[in-house]
Design a protein that fits this description.
By secondary structure, this protein is of the alpha+beta class. It has a domain of about 90 residues.
């Protein structure tokens, strides 16, 4: 399956069975997991590959039309990507802010004191 290909199937899980969509372009952090759109929950969820893959079968269009499942998936994908983008951005922010390093402030030169001793008020009148 290519990265741009969608697979429409059915997850056989007893009472939790549901139509699903697999989009290979949605990658998880782990090679041991896969994202699937779960139509019953109207959400893209992360599943363990070892557990879920043996339970996936081709979609029977008598259950749901591919077009209807595709439209629902597209809406869920938009929601998912908007939250995933935020999560990715949050991972880039460190847990703590870096320690600020302050440069020592330069010593204040008290020019007023040094000028007072050098000049008299009489010197300014001339």
């Amino acid at each position: 399956m290519s990265k741009n290909e969608l697979w429409f199937g059915y997850l056989k899980a007893g009472g939790k069975s549901t139509p699903v969509v697999r989009d290979e372009s949605l990658e998880t952090k782990s090679k041991g997991t896969v994202y699937l759109y779960n139509h019953s929950k109207d959400a893209i969820l992360e599943y363990s590959r070892d557990i879920v893959e043996p339970k996936l079968v081709e979609l029977d269009e008598q259950i749901i039309a591919v077009k209807d499942l595709s439209n629902a998936f597209k809406e869920a994908r938009k929601r998912f990507l908007s939250t995933t983008t935020i999560r990715r951005w949050e991972r880039e922010i460190p847990d703590r802010a870096p320690v600020a390093v302050r440069e020592p402030e330069p010593e204040e030169d008290d020019f007023a004191d040094s000028y007072d001793s050098d000049f008299d008020d009489d010197d300014l009148d001339s």
